[in-house]
What we know:
Elements: H1 35-59, H2 86-95, E1 108-115, E2 120-125, E3 130-136, H3 140-151, H4 159-163, H5 178-207, E4 214-221, H6 230-238, E5 242-244, H7 267-273
Parallel strand pairs: 1-4, 4-5
Antiparallel strand pairs: 1-2, 2-3
Helix pairs in contact: 2-7, 3-5, 5-6
Amino acid sequence: MKRKKNQRLYRVWEATDRVWESPLKEAREDVVSAPQQATETYHELRMTLPALLPRYLASQRWFGGKARQIRSAEITDLVPMGNTHLEAFALLRALQAPQEGAGGNAEAALVAVAIGHERSTFAVSDGRTCEFTRVLDWGGSQLNVALARTLDAAPSEVEELKRSLPLNVATVPDGLSPERAAQARDAMIRTIQVFARELVSSLQFYQNQPGSLGIGEIVLSGGTAHLAGLAEELERLIGVRVRVGDPLARMKVSKKVGEPDQIGSLAVAIGLGIED
């Protein structure tokens, strides 16, 4: 790690001893890092889609107007999405309003990670455009499997235990001995190390691109993000500040709504509803 211009920005060039080295993965279909190509694509779509849409719509099972012929189609508007997946676009929008950089620092990239049950979405933005995104094959269910193997139980039976077992406090949940609680906690930490390696690999890939920004922090969302001690453990492993984001920060919420449990799981849905 090294700081840029004495600011708290990070360059994740190498995996440290805390996260053993993982080779960089080649660019795949779920990796998007060339937003300048998107502008050219939008112009092409505006020219080619009108001729293709009538036949396409008529061939779709969900199209309810098969008895009527579509004579023509017109593209009235195209919404630029930074050449990225809709989920990543919505995630970034929920966690920060458009600005240069992140957190008031124009030289810092906004790094958002939505941890779902089966998979996670990793997205990096310069504050306005999603520059890089990929889907990680890791989710909260991985922790369930690790706990189930350790405690000789079914993954569905350990969900409540997972929520009551902090990673950073040596507490003993009801029904477990101190020894078994320590074994369960260790199993979860080992599984999180796999996730940390994936995050380091993704950060390395992004920062190998020309014009990449420094990493100020990683913002977590998703249901699993609320796991006690997860942000602290990832920060310890990666060496970059990690915090849990608030997807309601950009909204005015009625007092009648209260504070929903695991609000992070709604980050993408909230982002889709925000208009900037």
